[in-house]
Design a protein that fits this description.
Layout (H helix, E strand, L loop, with lengths): L1 H4 L10 E7 L7 H9 L7 H11 L5 E6 L3 E6 L5 E4 L5 E4 L6 E9 L2 E8 L2 E10 L4 E10 L6 E10 L1
Antiparallel strand pairs: 1-2, 1-10, 2-3, 3-4, 5-6, 6-7, 7-8, 8-9, 9-10
C-alpha cells in the first residue's frame, strides 16, 4: 500500500536548444580585466599569464545551451561542447584551446545555470543567468588559479536569437 501512495516524479523534459549572440557594448572589457588581475605579477611572468588568459577567455560571438532530459550541453562558438550530467556530478571535457582535459560540473538552479570547470591549477566558475524570460543571458565568470595573485572576474551579455 505504501508503494501505491508514493508519487513517481517524471524526469525533467528536454527543453531544447537556445542560441545566444554576444552583445559587445554590454560586456566587460575582458583584456582590461586580465590586465587588472595580472598587474601585481612580476614583469617576467606577466606576459605568460596574459597570453594564456587571453587565449582561454575570448568572448564567443555565439553561445548555445541545450537542456536535455539527462544532461546540460554548453557550447562556446568554435569549441567542443561541454556535456555534463544534470545531477551536478562531474564529467571530463577536453578544451579545444589548451588541449587539456578538465572536469566540469553543471547545475540548474532557478533561472541560473552554474558551471564549474576544474583544472589541475585552479577553477573557473561560470554563472549563466537567464534574464527577461530567457531573451537575454548574462554570463558572469570568475577564474581562480594558484599562480594568479587574485581572481579574474568579468561579465558578458548575450541576446537570444530566434
Amino acid at each position: 500500500m505504501l508503494a501505491a501512495t508514493l508519487a513517481v516524479t517524471p524526469p525533467p523534459p528536454d527543453t531544447g536548444t537556445a542560441v545566444f549572440e554576444l552583445v559587445p557594448e554590454r560586456c566587460d572589457n575582458v583584456p582590461a580585466a586580465i590586465e587588472r588581475t595580472i598587474r601585481p605579477m612580476s614583469w617576467i611572468i606577466r606576459p605568460i599569464a596574459r597570453h594564456r588568459l587571453l587565449r582561454t577567455n575570448r568572448p564567443p560571438a555565439h553561445l548555445t545551451i541545450h537542456v536535455r532530459e539527462d544532461s546540460l550541453v554548453v557550447t562556446f562558438e568554435g569549441h567542443p561542447p561541454i556535456v555534463t550530467p544534470r545531477d551536478g556530478s562531474s564529467a571530463p571535457w577536453k578544451s579545444g584551446v589548451s588541449r587539456e582535459t578538465y572536469y566540469v560540473k553543471s547545475l540548474l538552479s532557478g533561472d541560473t545555470l552554474h558551471q564549474t570547470i576544474t583544472a589541475s591549477d585552479g577553477h573557473r566558475d561560470d554563472d549563466f543567468a537567464f534574464l527577461d524570460g530567457g531573451e537575454r543571458l548574462e554570463l558572469h565568470v570568475v577564474l581562480e588559479a594558484e599562480h594568479l595573485p587574485g581572481p579574474l572576474d568579468y561579465t558578458l551579455e548575450f541576446r537570444r536569437l530566434h
